[in-house]
Design brief:
Blueprint (H helix, E strand, L loop, with lengths): L11 E5 L2 H4 L34 H9 L14 H15 L3 E5 L2 H4 L10 H16 L3 E7 L5 H7 L6 H17 L5 E5 L9 H5 L11 H26 L4 E7 L3 E3 L4 H23 L5 H8 L10 H7 L4 E5 L4 E3 L8 E2 L6 E2 L5 E2 L5 E2 L1 H15 L3 E5 L17 H20 L3 E7 L19 E3 L11 E3 L1 H11 L6
Parallel strand pairs: 1-2, 1-14, 2-3, 3-4, 4-5, 5-7, 6-8, 7-13, 13-14
Antiparallel strand pairs: 9-10, 11-12, 15-16
Helix pairs in contact: 3-5, 7-9, 9-12, 13-14
């Protein structure tokens, strides 16, 4: 029995999944294609040379012409679309208080710019939220989790185009009105700062949509449009669901200076601002002063309309959500050294940390520090909505799966969250990433498993899809049952 007793009685314990990684049924019931449906799997032999997708129009067209769906695992996911009742029953058995899900925008507006929503798509999420509520599981719903309709990429050049602001606002109002009696917690954009690391996944524009040397301009202009879209969603949420809460969400990255050298410290500060810039705008309602010199130095001019500043100022989020998987080391440019792998970026290897099977540096204490940094800065409730360990799991002859490494990873992170709460941080919940094995965001692999629940499917889409409980299932069940006291 742990001595930890920090977690409040109403703490939201649960898990997090994304539509594009679990649902499948990419062409059923009127759903339109999303940007994730044309992302090809990275086979194990190609993993070391993997790059975050940033395709051209021709490459997307090639993917559209490829009818071998096995090459595009997010098209079939883990068949959550047809098996959600079975999976939610397992989440109930785990004791979940909450489940973070996303809505596939293309199920509601297949092309993104449609005049009327798709009723079959709306009905699916009605059924999903009803099933969660039936089991006493609070839905936390992300509006955009790398799910931009592909038509908005091909016809409008994604978020570089201001027209997407109103398309998104219409989509947000539509689902708020439809689910106002079923969903109280919302998130606008998943990992919105991802646009600086993965322009296609985060900003839905293609490599040939941007002139040479104009990428930074396109990324920050797209981010501005997403800030406006987020603010319009905040306004609509507060109007339509007065007792609802809506948050922003970022990749939670903490950047350590490589040494006490002043240049390393300044580099770390600037790298940290790649995270804080996004939360600064959405929680404070204006662009921070430090971006003025950055924009000037990089020749960036944000195109604004007269009402933009007021929209941002008057519609700030209620809470700040974050993912947390690893920390990073920042150093002045001339520094050489061994690099560590990462999801969206890599940095110098930290000699004080161990790493996952995929080379991500494991740093539970960094989570406590980062939570304190966020809360010191904003004094708004925080929500850890992604945290987990991607690893190879082995099924024993008797069907058991002994994932002590996952338990150890999660245990240490939960301990540090408890310490952050003792520090005074207002932390409202924790949703472990991938409570059921799903298609990897970064590589579209299945062998990179996060779940407490094993899914019998391989990287090539083969398998029975049978669900099995891992050792971590029973461990996390006890964590929730004891409200974090027994780890």
């Amino acid at each position: 029995m742990s001595e930890l007793k920090q977690f409040p009685e109403n703490f939201l314990w649960g898990g997090a999944i994304a539509a594009n990684q679990v649902e499948g049924a990419f062409d059923e019931d009127g759903k339109g294609l999303s940007i994730s449906d044309v992302v090809k799997v990275v086979r194990p032999e190609d993993r070391k040379k993997m790059k975050i997708p940033f395709p051209t129009t021709a490459e997307v067209q090639e993917a559209l012409n490829d009818t071998n769906h096995k090459n595009y695992p997010k098209r079939y996911g883990i068949d959550f679309y047809h098996r959600y009742k079975e999976d939610i029953a397992l989440f109930k058995e785990l004791g979940f208080k909450t489940l973070r899900v996303s809505i596939a925008w293309g199920r509601i507006f297949p092309n993104g710019d449609d005049t009327t929503p798709n009723e079959a798509g709306l009905k699916f999420y009605d059924n999903l939220f009803d099933e969660l509520n039936k089991h006493g599981i609070e839905p936390v719903v992300t509006l955009s989790h790398y799910e931009t309709p592909l038509n908005l990429t091909l016809a409008y050049k994604g978020w570089t185009n201001r027209k997407l602001v109103d398309f998104f606002a219409k989509y947000a109002e539509t689902v708020f009105e439809r689910y106002k009696d079923k969903v109280k917690y919302w998130i606008t954009f998943n990992e919105i700062n991802c646009i600086l690391m993965a322009p296609y996944i985060g900003g839905a524009f293609l490599r040939d949509h941007v002139a040479e040397g104009e990428l930074l301009q396109a990324q920050f202009q797209s981010a501005h449009h997403q800030f406006l879209a987020s603010a319009k969603a905040v306004e609509a949420l507060h109007r339509i669901i007065p007792d609802g809460k809506i948050g922003c969400m970022v990749v939670g990255m903490i950047n350590y200076p490589n040494s006490p050298h002043p240049d390393d410290v300044m580099t770390a500060l600037n790298d940290q601002r790649n995270t804080f810039f996004f939360t600064d705008v959405m929680t404070r309602g204006h662009y921070p002063a430090y971006m003025t010199s950055f924009f000037k130095e990089n020749g960036i001019t944000i195109q604004k309309e007269a009402e933009d500043d007021a929209i941002l100022k008057n519609n700030v989020v209620d809470y700040v959500a974050l993912s947390y998987y690893m920390s990073s080391v920042s150093a002045r440019p001339e520094t050489e050294g061994e690099k560590a792998a990462g999801n969206l970026l890599s940095s110098l290897k930290n000699p004080y940390l161990e790493a996952s099977d995929w080379g991500w540096q494991i740093d539970p204490k960094g989570l406590r520090t980062l939570l304190n940094m966020f809360y010191d800065r904003y004094e708004k409730p925080l929500f850890v909505v992604e945290n987990g360990l991607g690893a190879f799991d082995e099924v024993e002859d008797d069907g058991s799966i002994h994932d002590d490494y996952r338990i150890a990873y999660l245990r240490e992170h939960i301990k540090e969250m408890g310490k952050a709460i003792e520090d005074g941080v207002d932390l409202i919940g924790y949703t472990a990433w991938g409570p059921i094995d799903l298609i990897s965001f970064s590589t579209s692999e299945m062998s990179k498993r996060y779940g407490f629940i094993y899914v019998d499917q391989d990287d090539y889409g083969n398998g029975s899809l049978k669900r099995s409980k891992k050792d971590s299932f029973y461990w996390y069940q006890k964590v929730i049952e004891t409200n974090g006291e027994e780890l």
